[in-house]
Amino acid sequence: MVYEGGCLCGEIRYRIDAEPLSAGYCHCRMCQRAAGAPVVAWVAFPRDHLSFVKGDPLAYQASPRAVRRFCRHCGTALTFEYSSDTRTVDVTIASLDEPNATEPVYQIWTASREPWVHLDGEAPEF
Ligand SMILES: [Zn+2]
Ligand SMILES: [Zn+2]
User: Taking the CA atoms of the chain, what radius of gyration do you get in angstroms?
Assistant: First the structure.
């Protein structure tokens, strides 16, 4: 299975030739700010199966532990990588061409979850 996606303006396109490892919602304040959204849905893939086939996203060292990549032109949040774990990369589900190809099954950082966010099905919290 091949997953493809990209940013809002089309400058960045990526391709993943692997199955997703896991998918979940993140309620942390950094995701909220990076995406300008109350919650971000991420899907994890093996990192060496992700390639940017068009454009070169900007890498932002959001913390000592993590790098976020986004389109320098339109700002779409694309990926999240832990410095300490080089095996996986998280991809924003909403930037996939077919966001319904995977479904978040857990949620993290619920301490900073906005009280007005209501998720259908209520994925288990960690
Ligand atoms: Zn863009
Ligand atoms: Zn987060």
Answer: 14
Q: Which numbered ligand comes closest to the C-alpha of 24?
A: 2
Do strands 22-26 and 106-108 pair parallel, antiparallel, or not at all (unpaired)?
parallel
Q: Taken in order 68, 74, 14, 124, is the CA torsion positive or negative?
A: positive
- Give the C-alpha separation, 118 to 51, whole Å: 33
Average pLDDT of span 1-19:
97
Helices (H), the chain: 29-35
Q: How remote is the CA of residue 53 from the centroid of ligand 1, in Å?
A: 13
d(CA 104, CA 40): 10
At 73, list the tokens. 């032109």
pTM listed for this prediction: 0.93
